[in-house]
Amino acid sequence: MELIVKDINIPDKIDFNYEELKSQIQEKTQIYNNLVYQDKDLKIAKSDKSNLNKLKKALNDERIRREREYMQPFNEFKEKINEIIKIIDEPINIIDKQVKEFEKVKKENKRKQINELFSELNPYKWLKIDKIYNSKWLNSSFAIKKVQDEMNLSFNDIENDLNLIRTLDNSFEIEEFYKKSLDINYAISEMQKIKNLQKQKEEQEKKLKEEAIKVDNGSQIKQNEQIEMNFQEQNVAKEWISFTALLSIDEALKLKQFFVENNIQFKPLEEK
Q1: Residue range(s) defining the domain that contains residue 136
Q2: Which of 18, 132, 219, 256 maximizes the CB count within 10 A of its CB?
Q3: Residue 216: half-sphere exposure toward Cβ, Cα within 13 Å
Q4: pLDDT digits over 113-145, tens only?
Q5: Residue 21, in any domain of the structure
Q6: Residues 34-55 pLDDT 10s
């Protein structure tokens, strides 16, 4: 099958009085460049605009007519070629569908083979295949032996990372973060964030306790100061006061006891 197109005479460029027409129109339209219409010239302005639009339309209509005439043979050729292409597309689509279905089955079989290989080689119960999976493994050009090599390389990298993690502080927590990401830097960073948060919490709690102690101490100091002040007030400007009282012996003893209990000094009156 071969497309045979008869030689055709490609039309030369379309000649018309371009320079003459351009010169005439430029000459006639030049007067409008600096023309200023007044209110009284409104009708004239509208008429001038209408005439210019008519001229533009006449030129454009002729251009469209010539374009259709010029393109008609090509458009007919294009339509017929597209019709033939449509006929060809039908078997292409049928074949393409079968090829894609074949490739899909082939990929599913390889995916199953890859999963079985992973289950056989995987030394970690917690590790899922999606953590190390590479989409290029399904490519027909990627041999299953190469898939196996890449899996083993991933397992070795994981083992090296775990050995390093187990030498660190908070290794258990870091290892848990690592299992989720297989990124040792991320795991250490997440653990550091937690430690920083804990440190901030401890510092805040310590600060609150210190402030509470200061408040308690301040209250106690104020209370002691108040007691001392009251005591001082009670003992300010003491002086000897002499008095006599008519008391029984029992009453005199009770008065003496009161003086003793309240730390009040007393002495007998001097005889005059």
Answers
A1: 26-154
A2: 132
A3: 6
A4: 999 999 999 999 999 999 999 999 999 899 999
A5: no
A6: 888 888 878 888 888 898 899 8
d(C-alpha 122, C-alpha 137), whole Å? 17
The Cα–Cα gap between 231 and 223 comes to 12
Number of domains forming the structure of the chain: 1
- Taking a C-beta distance cutoff of 8 angstroms, is the pair 166, 149 a contact? no
**147 contacts 160 by C-beta, under 8 angstroms:** no
Residue 183 phi, psi dihedral angles, 5° rounding: -125, 105
Question: Token pair for residue 52?
Answer: 């210019």
Bigger pLDDT: 62 vs 37: 62
pLDDT at 26 over 90: no
Cα Rg, the chain, nearest whole Å: 54
* Residue 89, token pair as written in the block: 């597309």
In a domain, 164, yes or no: no
Answer yes or no: are the C-beta atoms of 173 and 187 closer than 8 Å: no
Closest CA to 28 of 20, 37, 36: 20
Give residue 20's identity as a one-letter amino acid code. E
On whether residue 227 sits in a domain, the answer given is no
pLDDT band at residue 30, thresholds of 50, 70 and 90?
confident
Considering the domain boundaries, does residue 173 fall inside one?
Answer: no
